[in-house]
Design a protein that fits this description.
5-stranded parallel β-sheet, single chain, two-stranded antiparallel ribbon
């Protein structure tokens, strides 16, 4: 029987609230339509994900400023005020993590898409990140979810057996990528839903 002994958490959207809208709602005086336009057309998630995959923030910013010089001021705000996009811990999920750490039954890891330049901000701000035996940060590894390589890195580095591990992420594509490698995958929607699904897998929580 392949009993699960390892739980791998995503961070943003599961344990940590992050949303660039927190900043641009201020920038655009609460004009939600303008916020959506800017984040869908100029400072897009695709652009941001390139920094999660290792591109330097300065390089990505200058690239966009060159492309949209008329929006330079707004573009530079993105990473100048990035820390203000962090909304705090997702308390119910953190409570679940704290219980798992306290019980000390399972190996706990994190696998996150995050710029290597910005991740120290999270380490300083969130004490619960110390609960993890290892945190694989995409920007450090120069690859990101959902590419197979980053899952292989966490598996190999920590001698994790895929069928004995569960991976939790709020992005369905990332969950499906883990499943393709033989890892149990859970698509996170809420702490209550997560707890129920972990129990269904036989995990004591």
């Amino acid at each position: 029987m392949n009993k699960i002994d390892t739980i791998i958490f995503d961070l943003g959207g599961v344990l940590i609230d992050w949303n660039p809208k927190y900043v641009y709602r201020e920038v655009f005086n609460g004009d939600e339509e303008k916020v959506d336009w800017f984040l869908n057309e100029i400072c897009t998630m695709e652009w941001n994900m390139e920094h999660d995959a290792g591109r330097l923030l300065k390089d990505g910013t200058e690239l966009l400023v060159k492309q949209y010089p008329q929006y330079e001021e707004w573009i530079r705000i993105y990473y100048n005020r990035w820390a203000d996009m962090l909304g705090g811990p997702i308390e119910d999920t953190v409570a679940l993590l704290n219980k798992l750490k306290e019980d000390n039954i399972y190996n706990l890891y994190a696998l996150t898409n995050w710029s290597a330049e910005l991740f120290p901000v999270a380490l300083e701000r969130y004490d619960f990140l110390q609960h993890f035996q290892d945190i694989v940060v995409s920007g450090t590894e120069k690859t990101r979810k959902p590419f197979a390589k980053i899952y292989e890195i966490i598996l190999e580095r920590n001698a994790i057996i895929p069928k004995r591990a569960v991976f939790i992420d709020d992005n369905r594509d990332n969950v499906e990528a883990a499943k393709r490698l033989g890892i149990h995958g859970l698509h996170f929607k809420s702490a209550r839903q997560l707890k129920a699904e972990l129990i269904n897998l036989g995990i004591q929580v």
